[in-house]
């Protein structure tokens, strides 16, 4: 990545992720990429998260924090996402404004050697951060940590509602094809839509979470640009359908493949550093790596089905099983896994250095929740995926893995030992899946290399954020609200009333 031209004034970008592991995982490598281009970066955590992460800064990187308004012992889990969102905005706004205030001054050496903030890159799930920055005269870009295909689905919610596709009623045929998401008519089924598209409550109302996500996605058109952690070779069609609704779009991923920092730099969990040593004792492509991400919660019954399926497949497995994943029965679950498979064939850890694990020669497949970071990490390393999506965008990511890229298997909506066993064996043994996964990994490597699509897009983004471009007059804003209103007035009204 090219360095900043020496005749330009220093640029300072504030990067503000939604305060969950998956969002930090992609936005911190993005910040590191900016550092490599000569940009000063403030990476903004919540106070709770800043106490949990590695804070190793550099001369042009600093970490700052804002309160999230929740007590220290609050679980901040998947069951509390809406609570986090409701608390974060009123609690963080004042401290966030204070960080941006130096941009209004004329000083060039504000805050201990850092120049004033000249640009904000905020998570698209933090629309208030974009609005406050623009109010203060600081240009703001939105960063979506999900796949472009899932963002296109959220952007299409008004159309899906107008067509009667969403909410999907209880008891409906989930294999019915879906209209209304451009470019996906040939393979998208009801079961592949984001999980919140399914009916909520007895009357089948729209899930409140879906309304929020659709509203926030529409809000992205207010930002100066929308940044994706993806590459055109993976999601060219989705990016092309999103672009007309946005002022600009940058596809600069996969960022995990660009970052040189250790995975621990982004982790809110303590990683088990003995994983790779354990893998060293196994033959090439003989181990199944299992991780359902940082948010998924499974029942004791689901754990038993996964365990039985893994043992039945006959391969050694490394399982990243968070302490809160199976609830109160976690200790018993761990012992059950070891007893069932034998010590030499299973290692269960709270959290694993995932990038290091996936690139290890011993790993033959990845049983994953199909979160976007995990999907990209598996793709970048050429590892076949067996996908069991839990919620949100994971459903559509899983479908793309199986039906579009051909690099894995999709076992959504079922958790049965026989299915787990069969799919793990196929992911470990299928030459076709492995060839497709390795071919896609080679393409992604080309994308991030000099002259590749993602590398070129990142250079274009760096050029965009320097002052000569930031001072330019804003471009015209496409009238997405008019499109939404004509498609589904009720949905637009619902979006506008959500805080």
State the main characteristics.
499 residues; alpha/beta; Rossmann fold; 22 helices; 12% strand; UDP-glycosyltransferase activity
Number of H- or I-type helical stretches = 22
Mean pLDDT: 86
Low-confidence stretches: 105-110, 470-499
At the fold tier of CATH, the topology name of the domain at 270-446 is Rossmann fold
Total number of β-strand segments? 13
Distance between the termini: 39 Å
- Strand content is 5-15%
Biggest β-sheet description: 7 strands, parallel
Strand order of the largest sheet: 3-2-1-4-5-6-7
Say which CATH homologous superfamily of the domain at 270-446 is assigned.
Glycogen Phosphorylase B
Secondary structure category: alpha/beta
Globular, elongated, flat, extended or rod-shaped: what is the shape? globular
Which CATH class of the domain at 270-446 is shown? Alpha Beta
Helix content range: 40-55%
Q: In the CATH hierarchy, what is the architecture of the domain at 270-446 at level 2?
A: 3-Layer(aba) Sandwich
Radius of gyration: 22 Å
Protein name: Glycosyltransferase
GO molecular function: UDP-glycosyltransferase activity
Organism: Triticum aestivum (Wheat)
EC number: 2.4.1.-
